């Protein structure tokens, strides 16, 4: 049976840029891509966070985070959201709600409603003793791709809203497959142009800072769910894969700028009561898909993950791995930081 393409049929076109493998390539294990209705043309991904430091601020941070979660119940709120947390290199606890819409018009109605826009714009946000941030990204479907190790899920992220899954795909198991899964790569080099810019504020002074993106900034959300693993598979995750993954995440967090990584967060899912779940993901923003590829193909931590996974892939029955990758037009990115320390998100890159 011929393999499917990760690229949905309605987004396929004659290639002016060839794939990195031939049409006869046979991947070592099956992988799948999420599928949405043809009517879905754009996505909205909003990372809405609260930042605090010290146990004495946790109550205030949790109350602030609850305000963000309550805002999702307003008309036109997100179709799906995930709750995650991490402690950054400066020792700040970051609570983040990752919200998704598959209709930008619905997002715009929500975002521009007085209940939302006035709350974020209020000077009160500057006086609460916690930091807030918004990173809102809007890829066109031809700028977006996913990959999953399991045909029947569990789906994650925006893929839950898309709802469908491909047959086994050809574009995986080789260097360059991530780019090949992006529909736009059929005809476009996806090269970056321009630079990050400070639209408002000064990171070192705190307060409200707005950063402007540039053409073809890349985002990857790369996740793992180990909740169903047991025995040898669970041991392999905790002893062979997770420590190396953690090392790679810390490298990107601390020294990623030298590789073109603007920011990196190693995030842990939690429930609405703040209890950690057995799944997580790395979230990083890059100058370009090329920078992301070069790190993946050359840095020892990622090479070790790639080699370990491909060596053991046939053993993995319950460990689910997936990612979302997008590139963005400059106009479809919005980054706002309120009272955040100057190494938060894109602040460290400007």
Automatic annotation (TrEMBL):
Family annotation (InterPro entries): OXD (IPR025702)
A Pfam family it matches: Dehydratase_hem
Entry coiled-coil feature ranges: none
Gene Ontology MF term list: lyase activity; metal ion binding
Swiss-Prot/TrEMBL keywords: Heme, Iron, Lyase, Metal-binding
Cofactor(s) annotated in UniProt: heme b
Family of the protein in this entry: Belongs to the heme-containing dehydratase family.
Protein name: Aldoxime dehydratase
Species whose genome carries this gene: Hyphomicrobium facile
């Amino acid at each position: 049976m011929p393999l499917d393409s990760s690229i949905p049929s309605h987004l396929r076109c004659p290639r002016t840029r060839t794939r990195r493998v031939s049409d006869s390539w046979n991947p070592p294990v099956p992988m799948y891509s999420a599928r949405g209705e043809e009517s879905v043309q754009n996505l909205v991904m909003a990372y809405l966070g609260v930042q605090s430091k010290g146990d004495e601020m946790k109550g205030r941070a949790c109350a602030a985070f609850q305000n963000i979660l309550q805002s999702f119940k307003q008309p036109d709120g997100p179709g799906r959201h995930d709750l995650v947390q991490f402690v950054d290199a400066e020792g700040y606890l970051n609570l983040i709600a990752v919200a998704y819409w598959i209709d930008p018009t619905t997002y715009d109605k929500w975002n521009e409603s007085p209940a939302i826009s006035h709350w974020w714009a209020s000077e009160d946000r500057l006086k609460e003793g916690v930091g807030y941030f918004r990173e809102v990204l809007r890829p066109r479907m031809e700028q977006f791709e996913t990959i999953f190790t399991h045909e029947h899920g569990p789906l994650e992220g925006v893929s839950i809203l898309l709802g469908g899954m491909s047959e086994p795909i050809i574009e995986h198991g080789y260097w360059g497959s991530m780019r090949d899964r992006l529909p736009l790569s059929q005809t476009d080099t996806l090269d970056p142009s321009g630079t990050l810019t400070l639209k408002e504020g000064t990171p070192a002074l705190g307060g409200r800072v707005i950063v402007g993106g540039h053409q073809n900034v890349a985002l990857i959300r790369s996740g793992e769910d180990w909740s169903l693993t047991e025995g040898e598979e669970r041991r392999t995750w905790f002893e062979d894969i997770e420590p190396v993954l953690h090392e790679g995440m810390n490298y990107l967090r601390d020294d990623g700028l030298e590789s073109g990584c603007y920011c990196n967060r190693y995030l842990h899912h939690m429930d609405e009561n703040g209890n950690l779940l057995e799944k997580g993901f790395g979230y990083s923003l890059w100058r370009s898909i090329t920078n992301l590829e070069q790190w993946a193909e050359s840095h020892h931590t990622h090479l070790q993950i790639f080699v370990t996974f491909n060596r053991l892939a046939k053993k993995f029955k319950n460990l689910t791995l997936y990612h979302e990758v997008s590139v963005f037009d400059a106009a479809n990115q919005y980054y706002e930081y309120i009272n955040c320390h100057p190494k938060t998100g894109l602040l460290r890159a400007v």
